[in-house]
């Protein structure tokens, strides 16, 4: 089984990218299973079903979405295995820029869009920095110069990644992405494999349901801000 | 290779690539070797840098190794060859077209005939694996998959009327930023050239201090064309219907050709079509004809441009609030 994690900020076009790439992979005779991870709600599983792709949706609800992802990803692989799929794509939305679902040994794809501004690549953390492939969408509506600067800034943030220009409307880029996905390592299980980047060090009172603001309610691992000095 | 890079002093590495300096931030000991610096980092440092130690090392080595790589143009091209595939009914497309730098080709055909597919095939260096079945050869050879995907996206610069500047920066700052990406030696100077050139193409002048998002449609298009001609690394330029862009079209084409690009433009404008040396006629998903612009056609350009000027004079008249009670004599249907 080739396992591919696809992550990126909301509304960059992850689902459109997977759907177009799935078409190319399907034409090559590859069977695909998709798991959509989201926080509160998702309708994207319908889009996959409509395209005839096996899909499971997982909602993190009140649990941190990254912890939810890592607690379930190996089960996803077993599920895809039982379907006889050749590839499993785990699409995760709603992650914060601090985290990343990328697993060592599985192909890691990060999706970002040109509209988010030329400085965005350096603000996105390990989700982009530790990806093997960075797909850049929505290039058809910004200038050539912005596309080049954006791609350059992605390269600066992650010089090891393959950068793919992807058009979610026409599917331009799907051939290249499908090529990368077919070349992903073949895995039997994810058990024992590690995330490429650790989750935040946490467990404070807010992790376990505290909602009240104030010094008295802050316990456990709490980090305080430092402010510029006020001059008298 | 990596041992030699790991022995570099931090300040040497920072000079090689500004991205390296930006990533590691100010360091108290610039003469420390990269290997020693990596060994000195503790968990807190790595947390701040958002990297594991192994990832950080690989990342920094890649930055240094490629620092020289992006000075050189990504793709040089001697020749682009397009071999026919099939039309929408599966019939063979009879096409073997060779284009070299400096060529201007117009692509004409009704809406939905397959102009975008044709341009798209060039962009992804199709190898019989797109709906049209076309194949694209680079310098006479089939690019191997690794080269094909490394070149795709960098081979073709695009200009269309849907495109806008979205970044919130001044014209000068942004073009300078683009120049820095291309690692040109004097980014400020090159940016000034691009802006001066755009001002020659645009009807209305603009300065380097104006915000990109405040530019008019014509000014944006002029800046995009000047930037593609002078700063883009791509040897092929695809232009999609810029006829109403409010710019000097002839100068724009001359500029692109002077920078040794292969220019393909999809257009319905007779003036742009006749400016091309060749025009490709697309029908039902396939190239139906490749027409060389004849000397007679070219001779018509002067007349067409004359009428075009008359029309744009009328446009200017309206713009300035005047009435069009009398038309120039050339517009009389009884001539």
What is the secondary structure topology, with strand pairs?
The complex is a heterodimer of chains A (232) and B (335).
Chain A: E1 2-7, H1 14-27, E2 32-38, H2 44-50, E3 54-59, H3 65-83, E4 87-92, E5 107-113, H4 120-123, H5 126-129, E6 133-137, H6 144-157, E7 162-165, H7 174-182
Parallel strand pairs in A: 1-4, 1-5, 2-3, 2-4, 5-6, 6-7
Helix pairs in contact in A: 1-7
Chain B: H1 2-6, H2 10-16, H3 18-24, H4 34-40, H5 43-49, H6 53-66, E1 80-83, E2 96-99, E3 104-108, H7 115-123, E4 135-138, H8 145-151, E5 156-160, H9 171-181, H10 187-201, H11 217-231, E6 236-240, H12 249-258, E7 262-266, H13 270-275, E8 278-283, E9 286-292, H14 295-319
Parallel strand pairs in B: 3-7, 3-8, 5-6, 6-7
Antiparallel strand pairs in B: 1-2, 1-4, 8-9
Helix pairs in contact in B: 2-3, 9-10, 10-11, 11-12
Explain what this protein looks like in three dimensions:
The complex is a heterodimer of chains A (232) and B (335). Chain A is an alpha/beta fold and 232 residues long. Chain A has a single domain, classed as P-loop containing nucleotide triphosphate hydrolases (Rossmann fold), CATH 3.40.50. In chain A, 31% of the residues lie in helices and 18% in strands. Chain A is built from 7 helices and 7 strands; from the N terminus they run βαβαβαββααβαβα. Chain A has helices spanning 14-27, 44-50, 65-83, 120-123, 126-129, 144-157, 174-182; strands at residues 2-7, 32-38, 54-59, 87-92, 107-113, 133-137, 162-165. In chain A, helix 1 (14-27) crosses helix 7 (174-182). By secondary structure, chain B is α/β, with parallel strands linked by helices. Chain B has 3 domains: 2-67, no CATH class; 80-293, 3-Layer(aba) Sandwich (Rossmann fold); 295-335, no CATH class. In chain B, 43% of the residues lie in helices and 13% in strands. Chain B has helices at 2-6, 10-16, 18-24, 34-40, 43-49, 53-66, 115-123, 145-151, 171-181, 187-201, 217-231, 249-258, 270-275, 295-319; strands spanning 80-83, 96-99, 104-108, 135-138, 156-160, 236-240, 262-266, 278-283, 286-292. In chain B, the strands form 2 sheets. In chain B, strands 5-6-7-3-8-9 form a 6-stranded mixed beta sheet, with helices on both faces. In chain B, helix 11 runs parallel beside helix 12 (249-258). Chain B is flat, with a radius of gyration of 25 Å. The termini of chain B are far apart. The model of chain B is unreliable at 70-74 (pLDDT under 50). Chain A: GO terms for molecular function: GTPase activity; nickel cation binding; zinc ion binding. Chain A: Residues 3-164 form the CobW/HypB/UreG nucleotide-binding domain.
């Amino acid at each position: 089984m080739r396992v591919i994690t696809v992550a990126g900020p909301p509304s960059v076009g992850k689902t459109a990218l997977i759907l177009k790439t799935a078409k190319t992979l399907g034409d090559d005779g590859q069977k695909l299973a998709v798991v959509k991870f989201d926080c509160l709600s998702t309708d994207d599983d319908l889009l996959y079903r409509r395209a005839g792709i096996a899909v499971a949706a997982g909602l993190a609800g009140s649990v941190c979405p990254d912890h939810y992802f890592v607690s379930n990803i190996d089960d996803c692989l077993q599920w895809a295995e039982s379907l006889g799929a050749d590839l499993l794509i785990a699409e995760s939305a709603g992650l914060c820029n601090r985290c990343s679902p990328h697993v060592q040994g599985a192909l890691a794809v990060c999706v970002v869009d040109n509209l988010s501004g030329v400085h965005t690549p350096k603000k996105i953390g390990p989700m982009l920095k530790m990806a093997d492939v960075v797909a850049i969408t929505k290039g058809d509506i910004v200038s050539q110069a912005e596309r080049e600067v954006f791609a350059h800034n992605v390269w600066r943030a992650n010089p090891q990644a393959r950068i793919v220009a992807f058009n979610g409307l026409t599917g331009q880029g799907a051939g290249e992405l499908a090529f990368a996905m077919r070349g992903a390592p073949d895995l039997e299980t994810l058990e024992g494999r590690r995330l490429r980047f650790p989750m935040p060090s946490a467990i404070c009172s807010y992790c376990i349901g505290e909602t009240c603001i104030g010094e008295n309610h802050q316990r456990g691992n709490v980090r305080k801000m430092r402010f510029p000095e006020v001059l008298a | 290779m990596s041992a030699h890079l790991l022995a570099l002093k931090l300040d040497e590495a920072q000079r090689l690539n500004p991205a390296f300096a930006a990533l590691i931030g100010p360091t108290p000991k610039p003469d420390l070797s990269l290997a020693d610096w990596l060994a000195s980092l503790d968990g807190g440092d790595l947390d701040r840098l958002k990297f594991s130690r192994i990832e950080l090392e690989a990342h920094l080595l890649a930055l240094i190794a490629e620092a020289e790589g992006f000075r050189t143009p990504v793709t040089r091209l001697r020749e682009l060859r397009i071999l026919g595939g099939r039309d929408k009914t599966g019939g063979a497309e009879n096409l073997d077209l060779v284009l070299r730098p400096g060529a201007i080709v117009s692509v004409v055909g009704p809406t939905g005939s397959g102009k975008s597919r044709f341009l798209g095939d060039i962009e992804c260096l199709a190898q019989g694996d797109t709906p049209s079945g076309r194949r694209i050869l680079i310098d006479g050879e089939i690019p191997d998959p690794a080269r094909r995907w490394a070149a795709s996206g960098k081979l073709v610069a695009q200009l269309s009327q849907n495109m806008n500047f979205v970044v919130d920066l001044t014209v000068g700052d942004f073009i300078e930023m683009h120049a820095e990406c291309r690692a040109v030696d004097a980014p400020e100077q090159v940016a000034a050239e691009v802006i001066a050139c755009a001002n020659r193409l645009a009807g209305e002048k603009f300065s380097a201090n104006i915000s990109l998002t405040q530019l008019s449609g014509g000014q944006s298009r002029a800046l995009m064309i000047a930037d593609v001609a002078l700063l883009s690394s791509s040897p092929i330029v695809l232009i999609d219907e810029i006829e109403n862009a409010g710019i000097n079209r002839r100068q724009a084409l001359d500029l692109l050709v002077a920078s040794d690009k292969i220019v393909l433009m999809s257009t319905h404008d007779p003036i742009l079509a006749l400016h091309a040396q060749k025009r490709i006629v697309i029908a039902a998903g396939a190239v139906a004809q490749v027409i060389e612009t004849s000397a007679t056609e070219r001779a018509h350009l002067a007349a067409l441009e004359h009428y075009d000027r008359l029309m744009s004079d009328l446009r200017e008249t309206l713009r300035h609030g005047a009435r069009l009670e009398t038309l120039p004599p050339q517009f009389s249907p009884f001539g």
